[in-house]
Amino acid sequence: MASRLNPYISFAGDAKQALEFYKEVFGGDLTVHTFGEFGSETPPGYGDKIMHGMLETSSGFTLMGADNPPGMERTPGNNIAVSLSGDDADELRGYWDKLSDGATVSVPLEKQMWGDVFGMCTDKFGITWMVNIVER
């Protein structure tokens, strides 16, 4: 899988409805995973909320989104991050190393409960980046 760069939008509890709307607009294939799918680590009241959703269209568009988890700040207008993802660990770790230099790291780049290596930081220019390395 080649690395990809795309927007990642956080929602205030209505990610499923929003992603279904964008599917109606752009077409394509939508996959969603709820917090509840991951069992014991589900925050209270979040069992049916979207932990990760991805819309891929035949035009080559990729849009990702999720409901904002508890404890993470969400400000309308500032609720979009840039996502880098793929399976080339060396390439993606290289991007992470450069992006996180001088950044505020909110999630260290490490193995997560869904099985991939993931990290999130806000760079020195105020842009939030998410890096997800698919583990096979």
From TrEMBL:
Protein name (Swiss-Prot/TrEMBL): VOC family protein
SUPFAM superfamilies linked to this entry: Glyoxalase/Bleomycin resistance protein/Dihydroxybiphenyl dioxygenase
Organism superkingdom: Bacteria
Record domain Glyoxalase/fosfomycin resistance/dioxygenase: where: 5-131
CDD domains in the cross-refs: PhnB_like (cd06588)
Lineage per the UniProt record: Bacteria, Bacillati, Actinomycetota, Actinomycetes, Kitasatosporales
Pfam families given in the database record: Glyoxalase
